[in-house]
Amino acid sequence: MIPLLILGLLIQKPGAHGYELLSLMEKRHYKYIVNFTKGSFYYNLQQLEEKGLIEQTHQIRPNNGREVHSFKITSLGKEEFDKLMVKYGTKSEYVNLQFYGALLFANEFDKNKLLELIQSQIDQTEARIALLDEYLAIKESPGNIDYFRRMNENSRSHHLVNLKWFKDLKADLEEGTG
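Structure for PadR family transcriptional regulator, as requested:
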């Protein structure tokens, strides 16, 4: 998935440098789409270049005279982007929270510690909703459909359902009806 994100960003922002692309991924909260680290990002960037899907261009920064390595997508990269769009655009996965694995053995775990785990899930989910609300508060620009906005609206809806589920689970456990 990381190659798709990098190629897509380079189509949107030709001539961007690696740090700029990584910053965009972080700013746009792509971590909710795919797990990535700085290392995995740069590894994928290097792999895309080695495969001829992107190429470096060099720019000299006017303010300090330093050379910056920028990237642009190649025609081969555009073909790969199209393939990856079809590959990921046709996948549909089950919702898979890591928490589900822990919940399988909840009856064998200390009740108070389980309550702490559930509260942690509540806190994390509320934080995600707050980030989404922050993004969604930004006015839409007219014109094209803003798919990223719609994706975030959908994600928010899912988080709200999860938040209710976590709170109900916690209440049931506290009441001893779980």
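The first strand starts at residue 54 and ends at 60.
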